[in-house]
Structures are given as C-alpha cells and as structure tokens.
Amino acid sequence: MAIQIYRPTTPGRRKTSVNKPDVSDKAPEKSLLVIKRKKGGRNNQGKITVFHQGGGAKRYIRIVDFKRDKYDVPGKIEALEYDPGRGASIALVSYEDNEKRYILAPQDLKVGDIVISSLNKVPVKTGNRTKLSNIPVGEMIHDIEFNPGTGGKLVRGAGMSAILLALEGKYAQVKLPSGEVRLMPMDCSATIGVVGNSEHGLVRVGSAGRMRHKGIRPTVRGKAKNPVDHPHGGGEGHNPIGLKAPKTPWGKPALGVKTRKKKKKSNKLILQRRKK
Q1: Domains in the chain: how many in total?
Q2: CATH number of the domain that 240 lies in?
Q3: What pTM was estimated for this model as a whole?
Q4: Beta strand 90-95 pairing with 75-81
Q5: Nearest by Cα to 269 from 174, 149, 142
Q6: 172 within 8 A of 186, measured Cβ to Cβ
Q7: Domain range for residue 87?
Q8: Same domain, 49 and 148
Q9: Residue 249: which of 232, 268, 267 has the closest Cα?
Q10: Is the C-alpha dihedral spanning 227, 233, 236, 239 positive or negative?
C-alpha cells in the first residue's frame, strides 16, 4: 500500500492525495452486499439529529463477520478487497464447505493464507481468532468483544491494535489504542494481529467536492445562525457567542465537558483512563 500524491494539474488536485491499498482485482461477493440507505442525518420523525450529512456517492454495505463463529473450520483467503464503509480493507474467506464470509484484513495477511477461529487454542498467527485466555501475553490484538459471543466491537479501525497486558482471575488486562487499560472477560474473543491499511489516516482530501462524495456537507458555525437555530446565533457582525461556555444546538454544554456517567457500572473495569 502507498499514498499517491496527485500532481497539481487543477486547483482541486493541488495538495491532494489518495490511498492505494494492496487489494485484489476482483468484484465484491454479491451475496454479501446490501445497498446502503441514505438518511441525511434524520431520525424516524424526519428531524435532523446529525448535522452536515447528505448526498454522497451510492454505496454498498459489505456484510462483515465480526463474530467469526464458524469454529474449528479452516478458511482460505480468496481476496483482499476495498470496503467503502470503513478505512480498513476486508478479506474474503472461503471455508471448506464453500461458505464465504468477509473479515477485517490484518496487516501482512495475503491471498492464499489459512485462518481459523476457535474457542480453544489456535496457532499464534495473524488473522486467527480465539478467546483472550488462549492468547499469549504481549500479543497485538484487534476486533475485541465487550461480552462473550456478541461479536467484535473494539479496535476495528485501520491501523489500530490493542495489547494484551496480563491474564488474572476472570479478567484480562487490555491496553486500548487510546491508552486506556481495561479489564475484559477472559471468554471474550479477539483476533491476533494489527488491522491493515495503516496509511488510511494520512490521506489529504484536498477539495470540498471529495467531501461531498463522501456524504459530508459544509459545516456552519453556530454564531453564523439565527437565535432560533442555535444558542450561539444572533448579533450584528462578528460578535462573540455571548455565553460563559459554548453549547450544543440543543442547549447542552459542549467542548471539553465530560459526558460519561459517574456511576456507570463499567467504571470498575477501567484500570487506567485514556490519555487526555
């Protein structure tokens, strides 16, 4: 994979780059595609609850297997593919019974490799998946479950990885990419290795048109709106917001305010908070 920098042939191409991951020249598996419906940031009442969304190119959602619950059946990597719904690449796995599934593609995974998922011990090899209790301490892992059997929820972004620090009692200590050290149940599953396509975050978009193709609309400052639309709105010219602290469009404190509940049950599972 490599970052390709465009020549400044037009103003829109100046200082623009694109990521060229190492993927197979193959059409996606039709049985694992679903058309992505556009919502424009609106809820079931038609009200905008997420601003700056709309338009964008038509996309298909790849159905990715985050549970990997086909246990003790070896699977062969048929292709590495691009997924418009995420920064990481995905891998098409073909099992011995001819069933095909998509999984997140770790770094150094190649076409033709064999991967396996099991509740018992598996070879310590990139792409294999098992319970945390079966993984050696110090290994890099990703696609980690919160609760056993629910499927991977943590560490799924391009280039991300967590470190298994210790195995004690009923819990495993895992250091997440944010720096947070958290206790996870031993029976939670994780995949060995680092998520691939690590250069995804180095892409420079370069133009507003590329953002519109992604479905991201322009961001309007609150103070540029009317008072009926935002707490910062109103005033003549370039006035300050006129408040002690900034607020969200719904009047709640914003920017730097902690939103996590102080009495949340999972607080006892956090050994070390993430870096500020």
Answers
A1: 2
A2: 4.10.950.10
A3: 0.89
A4: antiparallel
A5: 174
A6: yes
A7: 22-201
A8: yes
A9: 232
A10: positive
